[in-house]
Amino acid sequence: MDAAVRQLIALLHQSPYRCVLAVTGGGATAISWLLSVPGGSRTVLEASVPYATDSLREYLGYAPESFCSVAASQDMAVHAQQRARLLAPGAPTAGVGCTASLRSNRPKRGDHRFHLSIHTGVRTITHSLVLVKEARDRESEEHIIDLVLLNALAEAFGVPDRLDVPLLPGEKVVVETKIECEALSRFLAGDTATLHVEMDGRMCLDAPKPALLLPGSFNPVHEGHLRLAKLASEIVGVPAAFDLSVLNADKPPLADEEVRRRLAQFVWLAPVWLTRAATYTEKAELFPGCVFVVGADTAARVVLPRFYGNSEEKMAEALARFRAANCRFLTAGRIDEDGRFVGLHDLAMPHAYRDLFQDLPESIFRMDLSSTELRLGSPKT
How confident is the model over 269-299, as pLDDT tens digits? Predict the structure, then answer.
C-alpha cells in the first residue's frame, strides 16, 4: 500500500460514515487495506466475500441473470446498506457491492470487467469499467478495482481527495447514478409541490406539514446550519427541518443531479423538505403556521421593495399574504462584507412588519461561517 492510499483511507476513517462491504470476483484487497490502517473499526462494520455462486445467490436472495452485472452490484449495495443501518442505527451509512470478472488461469470469452455500487439510502452510484483484455495480470486488474473502490467511498463520504487510477488508452470508468425513490422522481418531474425526506433517506409526498424550517441553498450544509436548527428547535419547541428549494428568485433553477447531490448531504444529519417555493410568501402558503429561520441579510431583503419589482404595493401584498398564513421569521445575525456582526436590531425594519420578525440575539447564537466561504476555502476568522 503506497502513501497516497494510506492517506486517503485515514481520511475515510475520520468521516462519520459507517459501511458494510460485499465483494465478489474482486475488491477484497481494498477491504484488507481499509482494515490495515488504524481506525478501520470506525468505518468498516462488516465485510463479506460471497465468492461461490450459491453464496452470492444466498446473499442476494435470488439468482441474477448475470452475476457480474450492474443490477447485481446495485442489489448487493442496497443489501449491504440495510445491514449497515441495522449494525449502526442513527449513524450515516453506506453499502458497497462489487461484482467482477477478472483474469484467471483459464481464458475467458467475455470482457474483463467490474461493476462497483455504493448505496447511501438516497441514491446508488455505480462505477463500471471494461478492462483491456490480456493487458494486465490478475493482480494489476485487482489493483484497479481497489483504487476505484476507495475513490467511490471518498465520493460517497464527502472526502475530496482522490487516487490516480492508471487506466490504459480506451478504458473509461462509466458512472451511473440511480435514485431509488419514485417520490423524488415525481417531485423532479414537477408532479408534486413538496417532498419530505427523513434523516434515513425515506421519502414521503404527504408528510405532516412542518412547523419550523431553516431554508437555504446548502452548498454545502455546514455546522452553523446544524447548530442554528438545533437552537431554533429549542426556542420554538418543535422539531426543525431544512428547506431546500429547487427554485430561487435570484439564481437559476437547480439541475436534477445538483438537487440529488445537495439532498444526499442530509442523510443522517437532519430531515429536509424539497420545494419549488422561490419566495417566502410561497413558502408560507405551502406551510401555514410555520416559523422560518433566516439570517439578518435575508430579513433585510424581505422588506426591500426592490425585491418586489421596486413596488411598495407588491411588497405589502406579499407580506400580507405571509401574515395571513400565520407565519413568522426567527432571525439570526450574520457577518457583513465589512466583518461586522449585523443582527435584527441593526436593520432598518419598517414598523408595519416588525411583528413578523423575532430576534435571535448574538449572545445566544453566532457562527461566522458561510457555505460560500467553505466553497472558496476561506472561512472568516
Answer: 889 999 999 999 999 999 999 999 999 999 9
Residues whose CB is less than 8 angstroms from the CB of residue 277 and which lie 6 or more positions away in sequence, other chains included: 193, 243, 245, 247, 283, 286
Q: Are 226 and 284 in contact (CB under 8 A)?
A: no
Q: What is the pLDDT of residue 306?
A: 93
Instruction: Give the H or E element holding residue 6.
Output: helix 3-14
User: Rounded CA gap, 173 and 155, in Å?
Assistant: 14
User: If pLDDT is split at 50, 70 and 90, which confidence band does 366 have?
Assistant: low
Which residues, in sequence order, are CB contacts of 313 under 8 Å at separation 6+?
Answer: none
DSSP 273: E
- 361 backbone φψ class: left, alpha, beta (φ>0; ψ -120 to 50): beta
Q: What domains sit in the chain, N to C, each tagged with a CATH number?
A: 3-179 (3.90.950.20), 182-376 (3.40.50)
**Residue 260, helix vs strand vs coil:** helix
pLDDT tens across 199-214, in order? 867 788 889 999 999 9
pTM surpassing 0.85?
A: no
Concatenated DSSP letters of 193-249: SEEEE-TTS-EESSPPPPSEEEEE--TT--HHHHHHHHHHHHHHTS--EEEEES--S
The whole-number pLDDT of residue 375 equals 43
Count CB neighbours of 257 within 10 A: 12
